Amino acid sequence: MSNAEIGIIGGTGFYKFLEKVEKIRIDTPYGAPSAAISLGNLDHVRVAFLPRHGEKHEYPPHKIPYLANLWALKELGVKRIIAPCAVGSLQAHIKPGDFVFCDQFINFTKDRRDTFYDGPITTHISSADPYCPELRAIAIDAAKKLNLSHHEKGTVVVIQGPRFSTRAESRFFKNQGWEIINMTQYPECVLAREKEICYLNISLVTDYDVGLEGDPKIKPVSHSEVVKVFSENLEKLKELIKYMAPKIPKDRKCICSQALKDARIETKD
Fold this sequence. Notes:
alpha/beta; eleven-stranded mixed sheet
């Protein structure tokens, strides 16, 4: 089977990224992934691309086959994942068009299967720092070099979807001091950690969430507006990833690569 060490899980508006690709369909114990995985080169770096929502955006956030997606990428030899996504801003200083390199998440989803480890060996991975510090450092440096408006860290609130938040919910998230809001970061990033895959989130801010009231220019978020702003900034996102890819080292010295060390509870008879 063909393989790649870097995986890209694309979100809204990010379906076509590589040219002259080889498409592979992989069966997993958790069913089929969102779509066939496209293998190709990005500046001489072998990359596997998977559209998170499917090729026709047929999977809403709460129906994405997260376990199948991560299992399939692991089968292809992927060791590092770059995962761009669209997010809403919860704070006025984080503007549409900005990039945020998340360092934390808050999970408000429900009923999503979120682990590969249902027994018989109990496994407790640490999620204290859920995003790869090595990849985040590379991404931040790239954003600086490319002069992209960005925020070096941020907490993403992950809601169930597919609906957007009420004004009251959004105000609550804003008042907690959290920065952005999204529907897909959980359980994607923790499943990557369970597979000892490094995971970087690149959040592209597409709108202000409805909790930022008092400014007449701020209107309730709509899907059409999300797609519009994401498309307008797509070339910047591609430029960022293309700049990053050749700078990612082969050797990993991060916490992600040893996530299962001392995480399993095993007893001897």
